[in-house]
Amino acid sequence: MPCVEVRGRRVEYLDAGSGDPVVLLHSSASSAAQWRALAAQLSDRYRVLAPDLYGYGASARWPGHAAFTLAHEAEIVHALLDRVGAQAHLVGHSYGGAVALHAARTRGGRFRSLVLIEPVAFYLLADRAEIAAVAEGVRRAVASGDYLGGCRDFYEYWSGAGSWDSVPAAKREAMAPLMAKVAIEFHAAFTEPAGLADHRRIAAPTLLVLGERSPQPARRICELLAATLPQARLRIVDGAGHMSPMTHRDAVNTLVAEHLSSQLEEVLS
């Protein structure tokens, strides 16, 4: 895959197709690989750019010279846009959605539209007790070296009780060390210096995607954003949870493709 240098660190990304750019940002403990099917679906009409965020896939780890923030991760998005030299549609899932939300709030002129699939913008929540307990569990697991146990609890919170049992052993071993990055992502998602009112400046047409069975914090964030963003539409994926881009891939990919197509039709009309 091609790469771009950000803060002296190598960030690799998928680059497929041609046309208007679409940037895809993956969730925690994942990589650009989660978007393979969507990238294949879109690449006949768009130029699809999907980076491996810091510490995932083939990208370098966060260098650790400062307290980690969403702004640091969003620098990857801006480096890609500098390379293509055009406005882009921005799609983000979970942690990638929080990064996308930051990028759109702080440099909105770079984006033609947004798709936010349950962005983990925990800083917007008045009641953080439930998700704070999950974050604390990850922090303790990393501090004690129990990466596998921490990964199991993190995975089952988002994917459902007992879901860890179906994860192949090799995948478990690969995911467990990623908990150190997940811990600082939680920190970034809790400490973003913004309030709900700050998001009213996001003028880009926005599709919010929510799984019907997702945890309460994710549902609440989508509800708040749907009521705040000037051009937001909320769509619920029947039977899905937080990991809908993987578990309900076809339904989610159809929603994304239809949203992008509607933006193109609006420009042409």
Features:
45% helix, 8 strands, alpha/beta, globular, 10 helices, 269 residues, 8-stranded mixed sheet
Written description of the protein model:
This protein is of the alpha/beta class and 269 residues long. The protein has 10 helices and 8 strands. It has an 8-stranded mixed β-sheet with strand order 1-2-4-3-5-6-7-8, sandwiched between helices. The protein is globular, with a radius of gyration of 17 Å. It starts with a strand and ends with a helix. The model has no long low-confidence stretch (mean pLDDT 96).
**Rg calc:** 17 Å
Q: Which secondary-structure class do the elements indicate? A: alpha/beta
Helix share of residues? 40-55%
- Number of H- or I-type helical stretches: 10
Q: What is the succession of H and E elements? A: EEEHEHEHEHHHHEHEHH
Describe the sheet with the most strands: 8 strands, mixed
Strand coverage percent: 15-25%
Number of strands: 8
Average predicted confidence as pLDDT: 96
Q: What is the spatial order of strands in the main beta sheet?
A: 1-2-4-3-5-6-7-8
What coarse outline follows from CA principal-axis ratios? globular
Distance between the termini: 36 Å
> Unreliable segments (pLDDT under 50, ≥5 consecutive)?
none
Structure described in brief:
The chain is α/β, with parallel strands linked by helices and 269 residues long. Helix content is 45%, strand content 18%.
What topology does this entry show?
Blueprint lengths: L2 E4 L2 E8 L3 E6 L10 H7 L3 E6 L18 H15 L3 E6 L1 H12 L4 E7 L11 H16 L2 H13 L9 H7 L3 H13 L14 E6 L4 H13 L3 E6 L6 H4 L1 H20 L1
Parallel strand pairs: 3-4, 3-5, 5-6, 6-7, 7-8
Antiparallel strand pairs: 1-2, 2-4
